[in-house]
Amino acid sequence: RHYYGGNWASFSFSGLLSWIKENQQETGINDDCEDWRKLILENEEVISLSKKDKTIQHVEDFCFGDQDSAEDVEEAGALPKLPLFGVSGAEGVARESEEEHPPMESSLPEAESREPEKATGTEPASAMEGNDTEIATENESSHSTALGESTLELEKTEAAPSAISAQEPKKITYSQIVREGRRFNIDLVSKLLYSRGLLIDLLIKSNVSRYAEFKNATRILAFREEKVEQVPCSRADVFNSRQLTMVEKRMLMKFLTFCLDYEQHPDEYQDCENSTFAQFLRTQKLTPSLQHFILHSIAMVSETDCSTLEGLQATKKFLQCLGRYGNTPFLFPLYGQGEIPQCFCRMCAVFGGIYCLRHSVRCLVVDKESGRCKAVVDHFGQRISANYFIVEDSYLSDDICTNVCYRQISRAVLITDQSILNTDSEQQVSILTVPPVDLGKPAVCVIELCSSTMTCMKDTYLVHLTCPSTKTAREDLEPVVQKLFNLNTEKETENEELEKPRVLWAVYFNMRDSSGVDKKSYDGLPSNVYVCSGPDSALGNDCAVKQAETIFQEMFPTEEFCPPAPNPEDIIYDEDEITPEESGFSNSPETKPESSTEESSSGGSSAVKKDDNEE
């Protein structure tokens, strides 16, 4: 591929159009070298890899906006013959975007326990638990301050109340979308980060968080009785809510308090352990509206497939994440989810890791005697040797995957002209779970992003829809799109249609979910070849983090997974002692504390300067 991240990537609008075109064409890898088999020795055999990525299917895109001679319109600032993807869009328009939307986003702390004496203010209020972590935010002058109570003020100061929201939305044409294409960073996979999830902990621990910025998800929504409404989830939200009666508020707080330490009260749920979570909620003297909020907007679990214990665990996880960085449990990375793999690539590159784009791999070379993989052969006919090989599932051919049964994810991405729930603030990051119309069908997760997330142009919203597949993506998701949005290009006469956001452009596609496949299901893979999956259908990133750590520990059982890295500016390389081989393919350079000038000049390949107060 010519972009980073595989199916985790983000694209500008023109980049996504190119990706759509590639996946609608039946083309594979061209063989640039025909005589590569002479590289294979007599005691070796090859495992051929797939020549075409089959993880994306049923790609359909539609334009509902005004296509006013957009054929000759070019993306503003586009560079010829250069790929447009996540970071290029991010870096290319960062300064201009910040002028439009002064950043008010959270940056993760480098370590939770570092310099606690600098924290100021009181801890922000939470539904159940206070904030134990220092967070920095940026204002227009990039002045960083430690947040206490002001974390909860973030939502109030993000954007001034706008009179436009009460008026008819600004008309956006297709040519404007094309022209402003670099303002878009469109994720192939839609996820949010739980504030106490494994990925946030890993970003902090490894110091990879220095390469990314995050924005709070500002509201949790529910779809009930054909209407979208906001769900109160923090203590303050519950008691300020006008949707709930006083009795319902007490019921909800009592139940959520129980969920936080449900393990201490087994008598409350042990009779329902074999029941679904939805059935358990009916026994808890909760009103139908509270049951709906808890099931679909707090626990975010299936009505038919989720057990009582799984539902209680999901509810507890939601509540524990409240108040760490804001009054919802979720963060979203600026410039899209595709920034996360690139952040790890940047850290890897600092210590000698090499990432090759546009570089296909033809086969694995296996030693017949030991059964271990020795090398790969690339499409240039070059043989590259190594001790371990990590292969993404999409590279494996049908011969290897004969016994593998894959699940599928249905995805849709929409560009709309207004929010699904208009408020005084236009800059909202919202998550909505739409319950299934028919029992047995999956619920649909909807994430709506505003322009201050740096994922779409001004006066538009980027909407992601995701669910486990039962049919094609369009068949699974279009009924939900029709409920929430106006798909008609002509002027509507009905008031209900006028209130709905208008879809300007949409794409549907199915993505393979290989996250649940056991390595033993793959036929004939050597023991030193490890398979990692593509994205899964869950909202968070725990599956990917667990998988990465498991593979790492199998290869290097005595090593720490993603240890804290020194700051790049503190690494001093001794150029005289770095050979070309070491600079290209060696392991990470050794680092050690610098105690004196003499020691740093003669102490190996590199040294690390540390502050006096740093561990």
Automatic annotation (TrEMBL):
One of its GO terms (cellular component) is Rab-protein geranylgeranyltransferase complex. InterPro entries: FAD/NAD-bd_sf (IPR036188), GDP_dissociation_inhibitor (IPR018203), Rab_escort (IPR001738), RAE1_2_domI_C (IPR054420). The keyword Transferase applies. Keywords: Cytoplasm, GTPase activation, Transferase. Pfam families: RAE1_2_domI_C (PF22603). Belongs to the Rab GDI family. It is found in: Cytoplasm, Cytosol. One of its GO terms (molecular function) is GDP-dissociation inhibitor activity. One of its GO terms (biological process) is vesicle-mediated transport. Transmembrane segments: none annotated. Residues 571-580 have a biased composition (Acidic residues). This is RAE2 geranylgeranyltransferase.
